[in-house]
């Protein structure tokens, strides 16, 4: 029986020195992103390196004194530079999701770069905020934390199964200012000029999570990227239309594909009146958005977006754009 093509399946190869399984990156994947990077060998290395664990202390239920209590139990924590209540877990005696502190909602297991979109959205207590694709709730709960449980967050997801996880996490974390909805995200475009801020952490090809999920490339293909890009363009238009003039939209993905990142932002800029604001995040190494990809030229503002490659901060890969709707 013939195996599936390399472009469709993420093969695994054993590392004899350490006795662990490492992913082999598909050739087409290497060719696509090798063109963008001067440090492509380091990129491939980090794609195959296990992701370090991180947690966010839930300030709705606890405080940073929890760090000392965890360290007394044998944990070794190091602060994430861009999030004062985010910590890498360098040593622990227990599974992160199997502790009394986790069950009580005192912390949430969350990847370090995924803490960035809520921080860059900067919601204020009392505002009306939309989280278009909210499940399983990491960013929704962080938004509620920043808002001090005041105002209202509409946390939406079209999947019933994912909504169950969202509801359970918000309840465990003590989130009180959230309304959960199950809608196709494209439908929010009907609510014209309604929200103060909108977060669109878009469904994507998830290339950036290779380090955590080695099977992330199991069904990877350029065709899938193109299909998701079409969906993301519809979602970002709906998100843009639901936002009040002067409001802020944060668009993020955990993928490297320019079709799902810069091309989506370029599409929005050509369809709606927005400006891209360059995020400034102390302690974070990032790279500017691309202004050209495979013969397509993007609006010059797109370079104000940020790309986060795994090798830059020893994290997942991520893309973030902060946009303001012109009055």
Residue runs with pLDDT of under 50 for 5 or more positions? 1-20
- By secondary-structure content and strand pairing, the structural class works out as alpha+beta
Q: Give the strand tally.
A: 17
Radius of gyration: 20 Å
The CA-CA distance between the termini, in Å, is 61 Å
Q: How many domains is the backbone divided into?
A: 2
CATH fold title of the largest domain: Rossmann fold
Question: How much strand?
Answer: 15-25%
Basic shape: globular
User: So, the CATH homologous superfamily of the largest domain?
Assistant: Vaccinia Virus protein VP39
The CATH class assignment of the largest domain is: Alpha Beta
- For this structure, the quaternary state is single chain
Helical content band: 25-40%
Biggest sheet features = 9 strands, mixed
Overall pLDDT, averaged?
92
CATH architecture of the largest domain: 3-Layer(aba) Sandwich
Q: Give helix and strand order, one letter per element, not per position.
A: EEHHEHEEHEHEHEHEEHEHEEEEEHE
């Amino acid at each position: 029986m013939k195996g599936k093509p390399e472009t469709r399946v993420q093969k695994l190869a054993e590392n004899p020195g350490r006795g662990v399984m490492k992913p082999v990156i598909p050739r087409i994947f290497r060719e696509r992103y090798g063109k963008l990077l001067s440090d492509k060998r380091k990129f491939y290395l980090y794609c195959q390196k296990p992701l370090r664990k991180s947690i966010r202390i839930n300030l709705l239920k606890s405080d940073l004194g929890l760090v000392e209590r965890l360290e007394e139990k044998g944990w070794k924590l190091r602060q994430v530079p861009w999030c004062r209540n985010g910590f890498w877990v360098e040593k622990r005696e227990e599974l992160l999701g199997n502790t009394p502190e986790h069950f009580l909602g005192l912390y949430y297991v969350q990847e370090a770069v995924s803490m960035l979109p809520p921080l860059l959205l900067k919601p204020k207590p009392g505002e009306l905020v939309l989280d278009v694709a909210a499940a399983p709730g990491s960013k929704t709960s962080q938004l509620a934390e920043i808002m001090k449980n005041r105002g209202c967050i509409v946390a939406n997801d079209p999947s019933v199964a994912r909504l169950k996880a969202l509801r359970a996490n918000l309840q465990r974390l003590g989130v009180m200012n959230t309304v959960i909805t199950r809608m196709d995200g494209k439908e929010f475009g009907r609510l014209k000029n309604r929200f103060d801020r909108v977060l669109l952490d878009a469904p994507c090809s998830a290339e950036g999570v290779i380090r955590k999920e080695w099977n992330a490339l199991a069904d990877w293909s350029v065709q899938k990227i193109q299909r998701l890009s079409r969906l993301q363009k519809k979602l970002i238009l709906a998100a843009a239309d639901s936002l009040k003039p002067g409001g802020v939209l944060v668009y993020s993905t955990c993928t490297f594909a320019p079709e799902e990142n810069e091309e989506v932002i370029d599409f929005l800029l050509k369809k709606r009146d927005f400006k891209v604001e360059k995020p400034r995040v102390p302690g974070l190494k990032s790279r500017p958005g691309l202004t050209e990809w495979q013969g397509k030229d993007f609006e010059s503002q797109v370079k104000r977006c940020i790309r986060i490659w795994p090798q830059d901060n020893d994290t997942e890969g991520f893309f973030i754009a902060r946009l303001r709707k012109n009055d």
